[in-house]
Amino acid sequence: MPEPTGPRARPAADLPKTFGRARPVITGVRPTVDDGHYPAKGAVGERVAVEADIFADGHDELSAHVRFRHEAGVPWETAPLEPVGNDHWQGEFPVLRTGLHHFCIRATVDRFGTWLKDLQARAGAGQDLSVELVVGGALVGQAAARAKGVDRRRLAELADRLHRTAEVTGGAAGLDVASDPELRELMVRHPDFRPSARSKVYRVDVERARARFSSWYELFPRSASTDPSRPGTLDDVRARLPYVARLGFDVLYLPPVHPIGTTVRKGPNGAAEAGPGDPGSPWAVGAATGGHTDVHPDLGTVADFDRLVEAASAEGIDIALDLAFQCSPDHPWVTDHPDWFRKLPDGTIRTAENPPKRYEDIYPLDFETSDWRRLWDALRDVVEFWIGHGVRAFRVDNPHAKPLRFWEWLIANVRSEHPEVIMLAEAFTRPRIMEHLAKVGFTQSYTYFTWRTTARELEEYLTELTRSPTADYFRPNFWPNTPDILHASLQNGGRPAFIARFVLAATLAASYGIYGPAFELVEHEPRHPGSEEYLDSEKYQVRHWDLDRPDSLADLVARVNAIRREFPALQQNRTLRFHHVDNDQLLAYSKTSDAGTDGSGRTGPILMVVNLDPEVAQAGTVHLDLDALRLDPSEAFVVHDLLTDARHEWSGADNFVRLDPKILPAHVFHVEPLASRVP
Amino acid sequence: MPEPTGPRARPAADLPKTFGRARPVITGVRPTVDDGHYPAKGAVGERVAVEADIFADGHDELSAHVRFRHEAGVPWETAPLEPVGNDHWQGEFPVLRTGLHHFCIRATVDRFGTWLKDLQARAGAGQDLSVELVVGGALVGQAAARAKGVDRRRLAELADRLHRTAEVTGGAAGLDVASDPELRELMVRHPDFRPSARSKVYRVDVERARARFSSWYELFPRSASTDPSRPGTLDDVRARLPYVARLGFDVLYLPPVHPIGTTVRKGPNGAAEAGPGDPGSPWAVGAATGGHTDVHPDLGTVADFDRLVEAASAEGIDIALDLAFQCSPDHPWVTDHPDWFRKLPDGTIRTAENPPKRYEDIYPLDFETSDWRRLWDALRDVVEFWIGHGVRAFRVDNPHAKPLRFWEWLIANVRSEHPEVIMLAEAFTRPRIMEHLAKVGFTQSYTYFTWRTTARELEEYLTELTRSPTADYFRPNFWPNTPDILHASLQNGGRPAFIARFVLAATLAASYGIYGPAFELVEHEPRHPGSEEYLDSEKYQVRHWDLDRPDSLADLVARVNAIRREFPALQQNRTLRFHHVDNDQLLAYSKTSDAGTDGSGRTGPILMVVNLDPEVAQAGTVHLDLDALRLDPSEAFVVHDLLTDARHEWSGADNFVRLDPKILPAHVFHVEPLASRVP
Predict the structure, then answer these.
(1) Is A627 a catalytic residue?
(2) Which end of chain A, C or N, has fewer beta carbons within 10 A?
């Protein structure tokens, strides 16, 4: 015989008093991550878009709202949700400061609304309304009893009028009284007690605005010298700040600034042995002069670093440090904490490898050590050290090579004390791992953008990144190049490819970055054919760059960053929509402005068209999704190219475009009303 | 200043000892419903297909398995999961008895597997293996220390061999020793202790096999008389059992058998007033002679009902009762429990309505009554009463008109004592509500099948129903007709339409039903043009049927039900696949057999082709998905029509079909190897 299944059964008498009367059901709440196991992401100034499926038995009208508050325990606030069809409801709430916010959804049966809807249906069918007007009059009378002052008197009057109309044959006059918006408003203000259904409480982790909208610039400090006879220093980086600011970047990311190991040091172009003057890779962290909390003596001192952070801050720029949690064989931890490394049978330390590949200048940390607690604390101390020196942004090297649980713990710890800290995950790995790093707390993530080059690939990938569920927790940061990745399209496509990929990165994603000056100086020679490594990569040698070269893309970069700052549409990803073009080499997409809570910036849609072919001029008809652009199909409008200041009059959905890569492979249009046309 | 976010931060020292070393992550576990808030559904004899995304940092190999057990607390059992690409893992476990089962997924880093994979990569690159063979020898030696007896000796030998091969230059010979499947098996049998990651514990509610695979027949007892001079009784239904059994049905569903109200009783064809001899609608439950736990005196007695249940049981048939939780104005509860009904201002009870529609012969129960606990108990007592009289299946009338929470409570209560009870939800309402009724526990659900008539509609709808997440909790039961729904396609399509819709229902869904004898006797006149109501509906009057009419579809019905019993492929929905046909009037689909745990039934794919046009013969080429049919593209095969016994030799993906609705509008093919062809 089957046996009883036990604890599920409960007599009705044991249920809470209003349990059986709370009829609505709330499911599918967004934004949520793994049903609330992780917080969704938000940024200061955003309005968090909330949605859910809400329904109940029968035909009754429902009302629903979202309750929200900062976790610090301020009072709950309330915002309404509205039905948008198929039992789906939407609303939003503003977030004005950093830190975890809590929200939940509540729904009740709307007795007055149900009565009114039914009354209207009865009236429409010509039924006698008398009895129902008495019913409604009673509802309004009860509301009057709950209200005070003016509202109470007004509700009592309206209740009385409903009762009086009920006495006139058929009660048809009552419909007008009942449908009066003033009555509706009063009834909403003085709701009857209804048992409500409530969702779980979910969390949104709100970071500062730069978590959502940021422009990163990466440079090697040792290549920042304007004097070809010596390598750069932190002071040279400080001197470079006005240039970075002029280009419009707000995060300046430096590869590791720590002492570099000498044992098995790599030479230029990754050579197995370094010559005596070779500086080594900055990612081989640690030497006799110190480890992760020290500055390489050739770059300067911690005091120099402090001055750099302060000067950057004055320019509105965050200095982002690289967290490369690995050691050179000369790192102090190798002797101080030998248990943090894996040993071979002969007692030597196992170097980094992904068999058959070996990285002999690196000792990986062994996160399976029984001393993992002390290791975790030490790594957190590294982060805290640099936060203590003013760092508010980190780019994390290879986070997918350290336990995911470690990052969850580290980020929670750091952000609980320093909610302003931004962490960018440099994980070029499998999709599930990249997603999970974002779930456990990384602010932003490197992506596959570099390898998505066709119109179809870009549209598919961006659609995934900018919609729920991914967009609820994963913030892409698009890089056309990095010191590790010089994509074939840049190697072969020349200046037009650099411009196209730059415009794509800076307008598809609210956050993006370039590795410079290699990028704006169109550096494009690979170490060897088929390689994605740069020839004479700065990873292994000092370079000197001529920023004043006439072919520099610096002005274009500055222009695009200025546009990004001026138009809030480009500061978020949610409203990205693609528009069909009858030419596969042309990609058209738009973003519309989600009004910020401060109302700053210029509104209106931004429409991009990019020629992906670096060789040949391409033309075609763009079939605009006019709804997405909030355009009226019957009215003409102006597309104003913000790169060239040209204006074109367009009308309707279908419009012709032609882009010659030799001139400029991209349009960045502001869509404006016809009146704005310059005559 | 931002304030600390509080409780998330925890020093590493406060974390459990192995916390930091459990590196795998497990997400996206299936089958689960709302992240485990509701159990997924299973049926005795099934193998529950389990899947999850499982990954860890770095390059290590993982191993994962599912742990499962019946909630009664028997020991946990284990079954392996295997990676299928993109960090997705799959496995399954058998369920052999009713009741809730628990399962969770565990994953560990596979140290030996990682070592072996790396060794093979090193060997492939021609690297020296000596050191790694010592490492592996140590791993095997540790396993030997954990093992006993024969295994211990064998592991020690193998460890020794690895060590010895390490001493030979380069260690190349060690690769063979390491790759020996025997060693792998021994290492799996004696795993080292690894901190493992574990998912939440999820639940699968396992019902009896008929929950998954059932064939329902509905009839009105009062129309079951073979004597045209008197209405039918429960004894007549008993006499009808051999017919129902011959047709191959295993659930016989009866509309309510209770006393019928006389106040405002409806007449034939729903007339507002009944004549003196009119029997009224069985759904107007309750009269002076009793309510939901009584039998209508004209049908017989509770003792007659007991005899019917017993006789049905002997034929392998469940009697399914109708749970219509509503009252006629004459129901005993109206006087005994006036608080269970809503009142109008004059103290009279509000009748059922969906304004402007009114149903004046029905008093709905007021689930918002403050006495809801007693009401809930009374309704549960009704179910328990009939279970006490042998009922094991219920068809629930309009469940979406009662609180969803009530059903969750009721079904949990009933199933905790009687896990064999099956509940079919008759909810023709909005998608989210239908889904939710299934989530809260209904075994099976009516569907939109009746209104899905084109090939595209059927393919879309069935694809949704037979895949995760819907298939994890929602079991469709397809009805071509019901006493309330005579679809236009049946009104106009005649016999070919009846056959096509019948074959679709019985082969697309593992559970289906017909309302007879109206169905097999091709009853197709609507009450008026444009209505889905039957003319002279049995809902309001007694009918007499001639089951021996030569145009009855009874033989076809019996044949299809026999095929369903013979072929397990038709007893489940998971393997349903559609095949493209270059003619929109032809629908082709197949099911393959998931082997049952008892191994009974005939295997091999079943392939259906149905002509949806009831008028004209349609021909076209079916482009078979050979993978879905487990067919080799290079070999010919036989399609054996189980309806006509015809056999055709086919080969490759593209094959011609032609179906004349005037002959037979459907093929039900068994796909057989060529050898089975009758010469």
Answers:
(1) no
(2) C
